[in-house]
Design goal:
single chain, 4-stranded mixed β-sheet, 259 residues, 6 strands, two-stranded antiparallel ribbon, alpha/beta
Length: 259
């Protein structure tokens, strides 16, 4: 957001749509409050993407090794329908392939600030939106998206789109929204933020709440580091599948009773 206030003022903008992750929207709202010009003259409409984690550049390096690509080769992370493919100019792999998808539940290659996030569904924004990772939409190769109106302003935008017939809209249950993003991980990201800050970062804050299961956080951190070794590239898929099942079983056991 460096220099954004000045750019908006120079452009004499009065109303802007901003799309980003929840952490981007949080920063924007803080800037809006502190910048006198923005606070007085500019209205923002915000859209956040569902996000439980982003990835460091080391993740891109790992993808390049999977696709036998040269250093700094451009990667297209999505494309060719939904959920589509991750590709380089000379190779491609199905999005969510075991040796790539394995890295998401373990938070491998996720920066430390992602481990302290408490808004995976982007409720800070007027509208939040994300992939429909549930069985109901599994054969939808076009790519229907789930979205939530978090404010009256957001609801007004959605209703205007619906009335204009530019977007096909159907109602969906709150349960399916949460299920699409995996309830275990939604729970993890929305609970005990103080404990996660203390455990996953160098920042230490006073926290009077009951400590989140330390063994669970140690388990996540261990598997996070384990999966960051490129050796996983050479492990047969059958063992990756077994590891994934065991990881999920242990995590559920450690989660039990923590909320």
């Amino acid at each position: 957001l460096n220099g954004l206030g000045e750019k908006i003022e120079q452009g004499k903008h009065k109303k802007l749509l901003v799309i980003g992750l929840s952490c981007h929207i949080e920063g924007l709202k803080t800037l809006h409050k502190k910048n006198k010009y923005l606070k007085k003259n500019v209205e923002f409409i915000t859209i956040a993407l569902f996000c439980k984690q982003t990835k460091t550049e080391k993740f891109s390096d790992y993808i390049r090794t999977l696709l036998n690509a040269k250093e700094n080769t451009k990667i297209l992370h999505r494309g060719e329908g939904w959920p589509g493919f991750t590709s380089t100019s000379n190779n491609k792999i199905k999005f969510g392939h075991r040796k790539m998808g394995r890295l998401w539940p373990t938070f491998a290659f996720a920066p430390s600030y992602c481990m302290t996030c408490s808004d995976p569904l982007g409720v800070i924004a007027d509208i939040s939106i994300g992939d429909a990772w549930i069985k109901k939409y599994s054969k939808d190769t076009i790519g229907s998206s789930l979205f939530i109106a978090n404010t009256q302003k957001g609801l007004g935008v959605i209703e205007a789109l619906k009335n204009s017939q530019r977007v096909h809209i159907e109602e969906e249950s709150k349960e399916n929204i949460i299920q699409s993003q995996n309830p275990l991980y939604v729970n993890f990201k929305t609970s005990n933020i103080g404990d996660r800050v203390n455990f996953f970062t160098d920042v230490k804050i006073k926290n009077d709440k009951t400590m989140l299961n330390v063994n669970m956080m140690r388990f996540i951190k261990f598997n996070q580091r384990l999966n960051e070794f490129y050796i996983i590239r050479f492990i047969p898929n059958i063992f990756i599948k077994i590891y994934t099942i065991l990881y999920g079983m242990v995590l559920k056991k450690l989660y039990k009773g923590n909320w």
